[in-house]
Amino acid sequence: MSYADFWKRVVALLIDTVLLGIVGFVIGLILGLFLALLGASEVVAGLLGNVLGLIVGWLYFALMESSPYQGTVGKIALGIKVTDLDGNRIGFGRATGRHFSKILSGLILCVGYIMAAFTDKKQGLHDMLANTLVVDK
After folding, report:
1. What pTM value is reported for the model?
2. What local confidence, expressed as pLDDT, does residue 133 receive?
């Protein structure tokens, strides 16, 4: 198994971030217009937008990484995929755990992400917690 290079993972994340930003903008625009027509307050609109953003991000990462593609659009573009420690496809539950473990990876100046540049199997903290690998296809 060839572990995915740290910089491939960074570029894949940048692609996914841009993609989710565009999707989030479109959804936010539609939601904002709809809520404005209903007369909702800015606080309610903001809260609803944040909750929806969390759900969309979670579903995007968890569904894509547990799918037969084994990766998000960014990972597919870079030729890398997420596997379990034996190289098999992960399930939705493990992909969900991996996604929410990224909160820990980002908490202290993204050290959990940077770990992927220095560990033997190129694992970030979230990969270690979810028992996953990111490998070249």
Report:
1. 0.93
2. 98
Q: Which domain holds residue 65?
A: 6-136
Residue 1 lies in a domain: no
pLDDT, one tens digit per residue, over 105-130 is 999 999 999 999 999 999 999 999 99
Measured N-to-C along each axis, helices 42-65 and 92-107 cross at an angle, to the nearest 10 degrees, of 120
- Which residue carries 């991000």 as its tokens? 57
Cα angle, residue 60 at apex, residues 31 and 97 outer, rounded to 5°: 120
Q: What does the alpha-carbon distance between residue 121 and residue 123 come to, in Å, rounded to a whole number?
A: 5
Whether the CB-CB separation of 35 and 48 falls below 8 Å is answered with: yes
Give domain status of residue 85, yes or no. yes
Structurally, the chain folds into a number of domains equal to 1
Which pLDDT tens digit goes with each residue over 61-89? 999 999 999 999 999 999 999 999 999 99
Count the Cβ atoms, other than its own, within 10 Å of residue 17: 12
